[in-house]
Amino acid sequence: MPLVKLPRFPVHGACQCGHIRYRLNAAPVVFYLCHCTHCQKQSSSAFGESVKVRASDVEVFGEPAVFMVTADSGKTKRCEFCPECGTRLFHGRFVGAETFNIKGGTLDDASWLRPAGHIWTASKQAFFVISPDELAYPADPDYAKLSERWREMIGT
Fold first, then answer.
1. Smallest Cα–Cα separation from 76: which of 66, 88, 85, 62?
2. Contacts of 36 (CB under 8 A, 6+ apart)
3. Is the separation of the CB atoms in 24 and 53 below 8 Å?
4. pLDDT by residue for the chain (156 residues), tens digit each?
5. Between the CA atoms of 90, 92, 93 and 98, what dihedral angle is there, to the nearest 10 degrees?
6. What is the C-alpha radius of gyration for the chain, rounded to an integer number of angstroms?
7. SS3 readout for 24-77
8. How far is CA 55 from the centre of its chain?
């Protein structure tokens, strides 16, 4: 299992045009790749990168636009994006939420990210190969196990 060398916090991120920026002041709770069909559409790629963070560790500068969508799990998901360039930035960020997901590709430097596992692999693209030693869930994951793997990867 690869070890993750965390960057010095805070780290920063933004949409493509820079209209919405954010600062992450502490290490994420977990980082994983989601292969659901919604994340494939959202990212225009094979998967979405989900950096789960504590809401109290993030400062957002600018006002993202919001829409709600029903995820593959059947749950309603709050999605936030830049109203200028359309870049998806956050999922699940709402008043009172303890955690939410930052889309990993929006970090200014994402070179340190290594996924703790993969979720919704039942709908993954056929060309993408997941190593047998990686955590992989065909649908809803065991977030506690993903978070435990992440903590091992970052050495805490």
1. 66
2. 48, 71, 72, 73, 119, 120, 123
3. yes
4. 558 999 999 999 999 999 999 999 999 999 999 999 888 988 889 999 999 999 999 999 999 999 998 877 788 889 999 999 999 999 988 888 899 999 999 999 999 999 999 999 999 999 999 999 999 999 999 999 999 999 999 998
5. -130
6. 15
7. ECCCCCEEEEECCHHHHHHHCCCCEEEEEEEHHHEEEECCCEEEEEECCCCCEE
8. 13
Q: Which two tokens stand for residue 68?
A: 């709600």
Identify the sign of the CA torsion 88, 78, 56, 119: negative
By DSSP bridging, strand 135-136 and strand 117-119 are parallel
Give 10's contacts (C-beta < 8 A, 6+ positions apart): 23, 24, 25
pTM tops 0.85: yes
Q: Give the integer Cα–Cα distance in Å for 21 and 135.
A: 31
